[in-house]
Each structure stands twice: as C-alpha cells, then as structure tokens.
Backbone:
C-alpha cells in the first residue's frame, strides 16, 4: 500500500510534466492544425534561460515567471516569423520546419550553456545544476498512510492542477478563450465575426511555449539538473499523452499526461524482472495503442461529425 | 441614402480573376439580390466586400472607404456576412456561437445577453438547442444560427451568401420571411446572393444579374421579370 501510494505520486509528478508539454501541443494543434515538433526544445531553451537568471542571482520564483515570458515571446515570434508565412505555401512544410527548429534550438542551447561547439549532437553535454521549485532536501517529505511522499512531488502536482484550472477558466470564460475556440473550430468564420485570427494564433503559440517553459523548469527541478537531452524523452511521452487524450482536447492532454506517468511508474514497479526497467517505455505505448484501436481520436478527442 | 457603394470591384484568387470591375450599390433599407449561376462570382463578390480576399476598386460603406480595411474592421464598421454553407463553429455550443458573433461589441454582457434572448425568440429552435454543439444541428437550424450569429454584431448591412443552399423549400421560405421581416421592422439592409431566383426576387428591392464575373443587367424585380430572356434563364418559365 505504501509503495503503491509512493509510485502513484511519483507517476503523477512525472506525468504533470508530460501534461504541460502535451497541453502546449494541443493548444497549437487546435489553433493551427500543426504538430509542433519543437515544443520540447522551446521549453528547454526557456529552462536554460531560467537557469541563467538564477546564475545572475534572481530568485527562482521570479526567474520562472521571467522564463515563461521569454517562452511566450519565443513561441509568438515563431508563429509570426516562421509558421505563418510558411503555412501559406504548404501546411506540411511547417512540420518539417519545426523539426529544423528543434535542431537549431538544441544547437543554440549547446553553444551557450552545454559547453559544446556548433553543430553539437546533444549527447554528453555539460550538465548544470538546476534548483527545484519546491523544498527538496532529503528530509522534505510528508507521511501519508505510511508512505513517505516528497514535498516536491506534491508541489509539482498542485502547481499543474492550479495551472490547468486557470487555463480552463481562460478557455471557457474569457474573450481570448472564446476567440481561441472559435479559431480552432472555423478560422474563416472567426475572421467573419471580427476576430483577428492572426493575433489569436500568435497568442496560442505564445501560451503553448510559456506553459512548456514551466514544464521544462519543473522537470529540470525534479532531475536537479538540466542538459541538452532533457526534453527528448519528455517530448515523446507528451506526444503520446496528447494522442491518448485526444489531440484536440486540452483536458485529454492533462489526463493523458498523468495516465502515462502513472502507467510508467507502476509498470516499472510491478512488472516481473524479465520485463525490466527499460521496458516501462513500451508499456505506456501499448496502452496508447490499445486505446487508439478502440477510440481512434483518443479518449477525449472529438471525431469531427458535422451535419450539413 | 447609399449605404454601400462598390465601383470597379475586381477580385479573384491568386492568378485567377473572377470578378471584373462590377458596380453594386445598396441603399439604406433595401434588400438587394444578386442572381447568378454556379461560378458566376457570387461568393467572390461577398468575400470582396467583407474583406476576406484581396480586391481592387473602390468600396465605400456609409461614405467611408473600406477598400483597404481588414475583415475585422469591416465587421466593426457594421457589415456582417453569413458565409456560404453556414460556416458555424461546429465544436462550440449554439450559445457560444452567438457570443462569438458579438465579439466586436463593447457594450457589455447585459446588452449582449438581451440580444441572444431576442434571437432566441425569433428562432425558437435555437433556444431549444442552446447548449448543444452547433455541429449537431440540422442544415436549416445551422443556417438560422449563422444568420443570428451575424446579427449579434448589430450590423447595418447583412451579407447573405446563398442561404437556400441545401435546404428544403419550406425552410428556405421561412428564412426569407424572417429576413424580410427584419428588413421591414428594423430597417436592416440586406445584400443577398442567390441561385434560387423565384424566392429571392419576391422580396428584392433591386436585382443584379451576374454572369461570369460581370453584371449583365440590373433593375427592380418587376423590370427583370418582365424581360423574356431573363425570365427564361433564371426563373424557368
């Protein structure tokens, strides 16, 4: 029981990072129909920025807010300067360009913070220590039903829960949220009711990157360091989370993220020896595959049904 | 008084020019109908006026040039378009579709709520389905929703792009009755493009005939129905 609880909380706290990156993927996908392959690397860049602010002596709380602002600017600028002009020529090209951006950002991080020369591979880069957002000394735990739960895990889960609630309030109860949902549903009609779709898409990319920045900071905090490969696997899990939850459902992204985190940790804990630790990746994907066979648009995704 | 005046309006898509220097006017309180077959340029005319495609020529609304204005500025100026094929927001509820229609308004949620209730009373079917996703509505209901959404911005001029498309004649009749009533009772001016000449001619103040991007005839509904060749081609008797 204690072990189960511990694994559950560990899964939730890792899952909350996947949830944040997946949320960004979903926000961008709903707005522009693109899969942003650079979502994880945008988050990594912002995470390094937060690290840099820390080096300059700025307290971590303020550094995170500033880092999210940098992330927002990066995301918004990417939409305006790269995605918008290219998607006019070919929507598919945007996907390729985000792969390029993935590479470019990683090289850039490596040159500045990773102790590497351009072009670098991202492997074996310098690891810099990264502070946790929450108390994380060996003694910082609480005992719940006999299980020792890290304060950091609870903090991370709480933070993501608050952010999710705030995001849903924005989506469902604000002008910007209404505009975002309208643009996602029908961009041409959104234009016809007077919504400046360009601005909404810019804000969507910015918001996605800002949420991603928080995800990166949280994950670096859990890992206690940041390196060039930090977001590689996170991005893959986050993509799986978004697919599992449904690529057009923000709620699905959060639940998908938590589910993958929990499945992973449970599989690692309870699987027989011959499966081993390395196979825990596979278990998450098996579950995803199973869900997609039954519900092709994901758990909470909408298959577009429209009567005419 | 002239509400909308387009002169030498030319528009198209990329290298293809669809509209060739057409002149269209809508006076305050009029219902002006543009008749044309498939591919005549009806939808292009609408898009050129609402600013959703590049266009040349002069377009004035209430004496001000809107030729260079972006689509959202044209909505703010008081021109709302009901796009061809309804163009509702399928994933949003009926209520949210109407709220989105009021996006450009700055007069507060109370006035907007009053307007939603008003259009619910005009289209009771929409009220019954207020919380349903727009995508689940029937074609006729979606057309009602598209018209109500456009009216939520309190336009002075309503652009209607083939509201009869894909609808049963009775439903089309019902919609045209509502448009006619809004015109009489609230002084709403309407520019409507249609293939369905019979119904549209009935309520038109004036009619333009559009053929392959050129206006070939214009006049009152009575004048045009009196012309044998036009009657044969467009009214079928």
Residues:
């Amino acid at each position: 029981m204690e072990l189960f609880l511990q694994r559950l909380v560990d899964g939730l706290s890792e899952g909350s990072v996947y949830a944040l990156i997946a949320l960004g993927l979903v926000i961008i996908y709903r707005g522009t129909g693109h899969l942003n392959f650079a979502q994880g690397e945008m988050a990594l860049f912002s995470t390094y920025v937060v690290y840099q602010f820390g080096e300059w002596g700025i307290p971590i709380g303020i550094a995170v807010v500033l880092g999210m602002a940098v992330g927002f600017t990066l995301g918004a600028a990417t939409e305006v300067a790269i995605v918008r002009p290219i998607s006019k020529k070919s929507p598919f090209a945007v996907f390729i360009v985000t792969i390029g951006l993935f590479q470019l950002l990683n090289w850039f991080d490596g040159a500045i913070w990773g102790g590497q020369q351009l072009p670098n591979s991202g492997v074996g880069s310098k690891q810099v220590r990264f502070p946790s957002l929450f108390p994380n000394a060996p003694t910082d735990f609480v005992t719940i039903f006999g299980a020792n739960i890290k304060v950091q895990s609870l903090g991370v889960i709480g933070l993501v829960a608050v952010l999710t609630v705030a995001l849903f309030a924005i989506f469902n109860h604000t002008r910007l949220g209404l505009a975002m949902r309208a643009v996602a549903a029908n961009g041409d009609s959104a234009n016809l009711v007077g919504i400046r779709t360009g601005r909404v898409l810019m804000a969507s990319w910015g918001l996605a990157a800002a949420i991603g920045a928080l995800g990166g900071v949280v994950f670096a905090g859990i890992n206690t360091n940041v390196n060039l490969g930090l977001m590689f696997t996170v991005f893959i899990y986050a993509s799986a989370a978004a697919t599992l939850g449904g690529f057009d459902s923000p709620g699905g992204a959060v639940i998908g993220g938590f589910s993958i985190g929990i499945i992973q940790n449970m599989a690692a804990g309870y699987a027989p020896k011959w499966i081993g630790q390395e196979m825990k990746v596979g278990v998450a994907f098996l579950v995803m595959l199973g869900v997609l066979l039954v519900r092709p648009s994901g758990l909470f995704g909408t298959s577009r049904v429209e009567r005419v | 008084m002239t509400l909308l005046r387009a002169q030498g309006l030319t528009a198209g898509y990329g290298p293809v020019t669809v509209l060739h220097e057409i002149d269209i006017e809508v006076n305050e309180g009029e219902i002006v109908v543009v008749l044309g077959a498939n591919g005549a340029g009806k939808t292009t005319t609408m898009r050129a006026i609402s600013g959703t495609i590049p266009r040349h020529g002069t377009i004035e609304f209430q004496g001000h040039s809107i030729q260079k204005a972006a689509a959202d500025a044209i909505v703010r100026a008081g021109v709302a378009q009901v796009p061809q094929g309804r163009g509702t927001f399928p994933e949003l509820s009926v209520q949210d579709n109407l709220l989105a229609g009021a996006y450009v308004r700055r007069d507060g949620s109370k006035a907007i709520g009053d307007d939603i209730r008003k259009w619910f009373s005009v289209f009771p079917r929409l009220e019954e389905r207020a919380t349903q996703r727009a995508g689940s509505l029937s074609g006729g209901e979606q057309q009602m929703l598209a018209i109500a959404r456009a009216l939520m911005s309190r336009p002075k001029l309503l652009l209607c792009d083939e509201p009869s498309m894909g609808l049963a004649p009775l439903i089309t009749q019902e919609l045209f009755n509502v448009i006619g009533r809004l015109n009489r009772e609230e002084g709403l001016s309407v520019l409507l493009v249609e293939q369905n000449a019979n119904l549209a001619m009935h309520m038109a103040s004036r009619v333009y005939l559009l053929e392959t991007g050129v206006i070939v005839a214009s006049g009152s509904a009575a004048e045009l129905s009196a012309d044998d060749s036009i009657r044969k081609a467009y009214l079928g008797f």
Q: What stands out?
A: Strands of chain B lie at 2-13, 16-27, 31-36, 55-61, 64-65, 79-82, 157-161, 189-194, 206-211, 214-219. DSSP finds ten helices and ten strands in chain B. Chain B has a mean pLDDT of 91.
